Structure formats: C-alpha cells, structure tokens
Amino acid sequence: MRVIQALLIPSVAWAASLPSPDVDSRSAPDVQPLQQSAKTVSLSQVENKNYQGEDPSVELIRTFVKYGKPLTPGLSEAIERNPDLNARFKSYIGGDGNTGTVKASPPALFDIQYVVPVQIGTPPQRTYLNLDTGSADFWTFSTDTYRPMVRNQTLYKPNASNTSKLLKGEAWNIRYGDGAGASGIVYEDRVQVGSTFFNKQGVQSAVQVSFEISRDSFASGIMGMAMKGINTVRPTPQHSYFENILDSLEEPVFTANLQKGRPGNYNFGYINDKEYMGNITYAPLLTDTHFWEVNVTGYQVDGSPYKPMVWNALVDTGTSLLIVPDNIVEDYYTSVEGAAYDPRRGMMLVPCKVKLPDFYFGIGDYRGKIPGHYINYGKADNSYCYGGIQATDPQGPSVLGDILLKAQFVVFDGGKNAVGFANKQLLPPPKVPNGI
Q1: CATH code of the domain covering residue 134
Q2: Which of 57, 333, 339, 402 makes the best surface tag, with the fewest CB within 10 Å?
Q3: Distance separating alpha carbons of residues 261 and 235, to the nearest angstrom
Q4: Counting runs of H as helices and runs of E as strands, what totals does the chain give?
Q5: Quick one: how far is CA 422 from the chain centroid?
Q6: How far apart, in Å, are the Cα atoms of 361 and each of 89, 308, 311, 369?
Q7: What pTM value is reported for the model?
Q8: 425 vs 206, 257, 274, 299, CA distance in Å?
Q9: What stretches of 282-344 show up as alpha helix (H) in DSSP?
Q10: Which domain does 24 fall in, by range?
Q11: Whether residue 206 is found in the same domain as residue 294
Q12: Is 264 inside a domain boundary?
C-alpha cells in the first residue's frame, strides 16, 4: 500500500515558452526508481508564470469536440459570424488549416489546465504531463516526434531506457476538444508518479502533433485518468495510469482539491479529512458511460428556491468552464444586471464590475456551492467579462469543469465507481493582473 505526494503545475492550454530541457526552470526533486513503495513523497510545486490565457470561446468549442457532441446553435452561428473564430475552428477540426499528494497551481489569468511531473523509463526521465480526467491516453512528446513540431518540449527517449519495449503494430490517434490532436506509436515502459509506479505502462509516443499542441512548450503530453476503455491505441487499447495502479493504492481513489488563483493538490490512495467540511456525498457513475459521469439532481441560484432537475454531467479536470443545460444558464444570468449574450463569441458576458450570484448544484440532499466571484472567467474587453457558466446543446454534454471543481473537494473513486463531492473552506481569491 502506498502513499505518494507529487506536484501539479498549471499547464496552459498548450501555450507558453520555457528554456530548453538542459536549463529547465521547472526544477523539482529527482524521483529515484523504487523497489518498494515509499510511505510519502513530496515534490515542490512549480507555476507557469508565462501563461497568458486562452480564448474562452475556443474553450467552449474544445469541450463539445472533445466529447463528440454538436455545437450549440449559438456557438455555430458565432463561428459563421466571426472570421477569426471560424478559421481557428476549421483548423481544429482538420478543415482549412498508493497514497499521495500532487500539488497544483493555476495560471495567473485563467485557472484551466494542470500538469504533473512524471518519470518515464529506466533510468527515469522526468517530463511534465497534463492530468486530464476526461481522457484515458498516456502520451508524450519524444525523440520520435516530427522535429519541426518540437518547441522545447521535454522529449521521452525510449532508446535511452533499458525497460522500454516497442509494441509492434500498435498505433494511436487522438483529437481533443479544441481540435488539437496527436498520433504516433506505442511503447511499454516503467512510469512513476511520486512514489506510485507501474512497470508496464503503455506510453504513447507522439510522431505527429497539431500546431495547437506544438506551440506549448510547458506541457509535454497528457496523462489521461479516465477509465473503462476509451484509450485510443489500436488494435489493443491500453489502460490508463490510474487503472494500472488502482489495486496497489491503499484506497482505490484520487482526489482533486484545486484552488482559485493559488496552489491546490491531488491526492492518490487516500482521502485527507482536513481538506473538506462536513461529509462527502457520492454520485454513482452512469452505467453506460466511459467517463467520470454522474447525475446531478438540481440547482439553485443564490437565495432563490432550489429547483429539482436531473441532468447528467461529466466531471472533467481538463475542461475550464461549467457547462450546463441552457435553461439553467438562462435562470442564472436573468438575475445578473447587464448580462448579455454575445453572438460573435457565442457566449454569455457579464459586466466585469457586477457582483455575480452564488450557484449551487445538488446531489440528493447535498448542495455544492460555487461562489459568484468564481464564475467571473476573465475580461472579454474593458467593460465585459466572460461568464464561467455556459450552455450545452440539448444532446449534451454538461461538464463540471474547473469553475466548479475549484470550489469543491472531489473524490474520483475507482472502487465504488463513483464521484464524491464536499464543500471546503474557501479563501478570498488573490488579486490578478487584470484586476478581476
């Protein structure tokens, strides 16, 4: 049974610049190969201070494409009306163009993606991967990657690992929600995160990557944490890292304790009672899902009466926004003076200076709180800001993204096949450069 502590760093929507791997400012203590599980391991946090944020309209498109769902009519119209958004969308879809803790830090302007230091191979090669509960592929830039697409990412060197084995005939091809994609070949190698490790992890080595991925040199790949066979390797799908280490953990869980504008953490193999208040309420995974997907049973806007309403939602650390049925969006922004739909962006905007109402979601008798100031997602212009709650298509998906996850303590339980939620002590958000 193991306890691990490791670090999480806000990645950055595939956009940042860092020194070459020989002068890596993301220094963290080396993690040595383990013969036995350590009780605890701690890695210092590192923040990507160069991140400048992502276009929230693209973030919204990202989610629909990620789950293979149609865009909302409003978002489709925005793509037609906005030439820049249209060009980016076409390029995205391939048209014209044990137990442990992982520290997490959000970028300065938008709290969106996170990366974790990972050791691959023997001797271990340290790299930094996005931890994404909405996918199940473990892939990385490598010496196989087409060199013009490498922009100072850390490269996995399979030939330098004496435990690396090429899986002949296996290949993979993945496309994420913003249309960013990658494809390549597959190795089997030792992978270690903190003091957890698995000696025969499928490591997907990127040969081709899209420009949207290539332009971010801070993150060097993805560590998908979903389960139930959505890995894209063919003909033999691989297990996610969480699936592979599940039986060796003290408890078959990992928890997310993300924060707004400051360091948070992921714990593996145990639940830290000091990180939440009250009891944890569990929602069972839907039986026909391949994701961390649950039923939400209602919602409440500030002091208005609670409204029972069942809607299914994916719990996804790789999605920034809280995306819900359009009637909930309408109900929420009706109470916000000056809130308006922007047809060129396909999103709801709010006056930056307005005090936003709190939002609550329900699971049975549980009421999870998202403070109003968490729902201000950053400036669209000098007067208006993006709303952190946006609408989904009637066919879905609804997604409990980081707007909600930052305000909650969340348990991903692979034993119960459930996701647990609890409220936690929230600190006032630190001031950020844009003054929000």
Answers
A1: 2.40.70.10
A2: 339
A3: 42
A4: 7, 26
A5: 19
A6: 31, 10, 11, 7
A7: 0.81
A8: 41, 11, 10, 21
A9: 326-334
A10: 3-54+98-256
A11: no
A12: no
Instruction: Assess contact for 418 and 291: CB atoms under 8 A.
Output: no
C-beta separation of 117 from 127 below 8 A = yes
One digit per residue, the tens of pLDDT, for the chain of length 436 reads 444 444 444 433 333 223 333 334 444 444 444 554 433 332 222 345 454 455 777 767 767 766 766 677 777 777 777 776 766 565 544 443 355 555 554 433 444 445 778 999 999 999 988 888 999 999 999 999 999 999 989 999 999 999 999 999 999 998 765 667 899 999 999 999 888 899 999 999 999 998 878 887 878 999 999 987 789 999 999 999 999 999 999 999 999 988 887 767 888 899 999 999 999 999 999 988 889 999 999 999 999 999 999 999 999 988 889 999 999 999 999 999 999 999 988 999 999 999 999 999 999 999 999 999 999 998 999 999 999 999 997 777 799 999 999 999 999 999 999 999 999 999 775 565 444 4
Token output for 426: 């929230």
Q: Give Cα 71 distance to the centre of its chain.
A: 20
The number of domains in the chain is 2
Active-site residue set: 132, 316
Residue bearing tokens 């305000």:
407
Burial (CB < 10 A; 0-12, 13-18, 19+), residue 217, is buried
